[in-house]
Specification:
Elements lengths: L4 H9 L10 E2 L5 E2 L15 H14 L2 H9 L10 H4 L8 H7 L10 H6 L4 H11 L3 H19 L2
Antiparallel strand pairs: 1-2
Length: 156
C-alpha cells in the first residue's frame, strides 16, 4: 500500500518483476489510495524574507515542468491536473491512484500511525503474514479484526 511513485521505481529497478496496481477496497464498497503526507508549514512570526523564499519555492515546485521532472525521478506529482501529462511517457498503472484521488476525501483518524506505521501494527502484520505466511485469507481476516479494534478504541 503505497503511492503511485512505486510503479516507476519498480519498473526501472526490477524490470522482470510482474505486478499490478489496484485501489484499496473500502469496507462497504468504494475504494481509496495512499497519497502521502508531506507537509509544508510556515510558522507564525516568520520573517517576510523567509516567507517569500518558501512561497517562491512552492510556486516553482508546482509548475508543470517541475511536476514532470519529479515524475521522471520516480516521484509522484502533487498536481492531479497534471498527472496524465506527467505520466504520459510512463506505465499507465501510475494513474490508478490519481483516478481514485479525483473522487477522494480524507477521513480523520487519531490512529493512523498505530494502524499503518507501527512495527507491531496490523498493516505490517498483514503484509508479513500474506507474503511470508501460508494463510493469506487468515492474515487478512486477522488484520481486519485488529484494524477494527484500534479504530473502535481511538476514534470518537
Amino acid at each position: 500500500m503505497t503511492g503511485s511513485y512505486i510503479v516507476n521505481l519498480l519498473t526501472s529497478k526490477y524490470p522482470d518483476v510482474k505486478f499490478d496496481v489496484a485501489p484499496i477496497p473500502g469496507p462497504d464498497g468504494g475504494a481509496s489510495s495512499f497519497a502521502g503526507g508531506d507537509t509544508l508549514a510556515l510558522i507564525k512570526g516568520i520573517s517576510e524574507e523567509k516567507k517569500k523564499v518558501a512561497l517562491d519555492f512552492v510556486k516553482f515546485y508546482m509548475e508543470p515542468e517541475q511536476q514532470v521532472y519529479i515524475t521522471k525521478e520516480s516521484g509522484m506529482p502533487s498536481r492531479t491536473d497534471l498527472a496524465k501529462e506527467a505520466y504520459a511517457q510512463f506505465d499507465p498503472r501510475n494513474l490508478v491512484a490519481y483516478d481514485i484521488l479525483a473522487k477522494a476525501r480524507t477521513p480523520y483518524t487519531f490512529s493512523s500511525d498505530e494502524l499503518f506505521v507501527s512495527r507491531t501494527g496490523p498493516f505490517l502484520n498483514l503484509i508479513q503474514g500474506a507474503i511470508f505466511g501460508e494463510d493469506v485469507d487468515g492474515s487478512i481476516s486477522k488484520a481486519q479484526g485488529e484494524f477494527t479494534k484500534i479504530l473502535d478504541r481511538t476514534n470518537p
